[in-house]
Amino acid sequence: MLEQRIEQHFIDSADLKYQAAQMLSKPIAAAVSAILASVTSGGKVLACGNGGSAADAQHFAAEFVGRFERERPELGAIALTTDSSILTAIANDYSYDHIFSKQVRALGQAGDVLLAITTSGNSSNVLAAIQAAHEREMTVVALTGKGGGKMGQALRETDVHICVPHDRTARIQEVHLLVIHCMCDGVDTQLLGDQESSE
Q1: φ and ψ at residue 37, rounded to 5 degrees
Q2: Taking 60 as the threshold, does the pLDDT of residue 17 lie above it?
Q3: What was the pLDDT predicted at 197?
Q4: How far is CA 45 from CA 16, 84, 167, in A?
Q5: For residue 45, is pLDDT > 60?
Q6: What mean pLDDT is predicted for residues 168-174?
Q7: Residue 181: is it exposed, middle or buried by C-beta count within 10 angstroms (0-12/13-18/19+)?
Q8: Which helix (H) or strand (E) holds 197?
Q9: What does the alpha-carbon distance between residue 99 and residue 74 come to, in Å, rounded to a whole number?
Q10: Straight-line distance from the first to the last Cα atom of the chain, in angstroms, rounded to the nearest whole number
Q11: Which residues, other chains included, contact 94 with Cβ-Cβ below 8 Å and sequence gap of 6+?
Q12: What is the DSSP string of 49-77?
């Protein structure tokens, strides 16, 4: 019984990825273009999210500052989820809703990109970060699910919305990780050219 349940998780995840591939390829390509335009002109990506989405923000920043699969110059990215002193000070002195927006206002500049990750699209602190990014004339790349929630209305036409067509948080997060890998690979391919897989 448990093994069947485990197998079903794999099947459901794979099915969603197949279904989402065609729907999400265009916005992912648009996200690659926005990120590439930023980092090649001296900009950076600020990434944020809560819980599993915080881990995704950190994963993205690690792939960008270090490397994804190929050697290349370092690219600018900061996960806004990692400095416990900043997070706790802002949450304590103001509110948890401001933990990302105040960092965006402090660190963000025109031409930078905010990578905003929330499976529901309704995380108030991520929504506040989007508002702060717009104030700084930054482009927002939003990763959501569940129809996009409030974030769908908060985005501008110049932003990129990558909305996973599912309602289950675990499935959305699994696709978000694949999207992050696609974005990293896309940027590398645009910078370094196509490369045959060695596998």
Answers
A1: -60, -35
A2: yes
A3: 53
A4: 27, 20, 27
A5: yes
A6: 98
A7: middle
A8: none
A9: 26
A10: 35
A11: 102
A12: -STHHHHHHHHHHHHHHT-SSS------E
**Structure tokens, 93:** 């002195």
Q: What mean pLDDT is predicted for residues 157-186?
A: 98
Q: What is the mean pLDDT of the chain?
A: 96
Quote the CA–CA distance of 100 and 93 in Å, as a whole number.
14
> 152-159: long-range contacts (C-beta < 8 A, 24 or more apart)?
152/121, 154/127, 154/130, 155/130
The residue ranges of DSSP E strands in the chain, in sequence order, are 45-48, 77-79, 113-117, 139-145, 160-164
Residue 90 and residue 99 in contact, taking contact as beta carbons nearer than 8 Å: yes
Instruction: Give the phi and the psi of residue 67 in degrees, each rounded to 5.
Output: -165, 165
pLDDT 10s digits, 82-134: 999 999 999 999 999 999 999 999 999 999 999 999 999 999 999 999 999 99
Under 8 Å CB-to-CB from 48, ≥6 apart: which residues?
54, 57, 79, 80, 81, 100, 103, 104, 114, 115, 116, 117, 125, 126, 129
| Spatial distance between the Cα atoms of 110 and 163, rounded to a whole number of angstroms | 25
The token pair at 134 is: 């717009």
Taking residue 118's Cβ as centre, other Cβ atoms within 10 Å add up to 29
Whole-number pLDDT of residue 87: 98
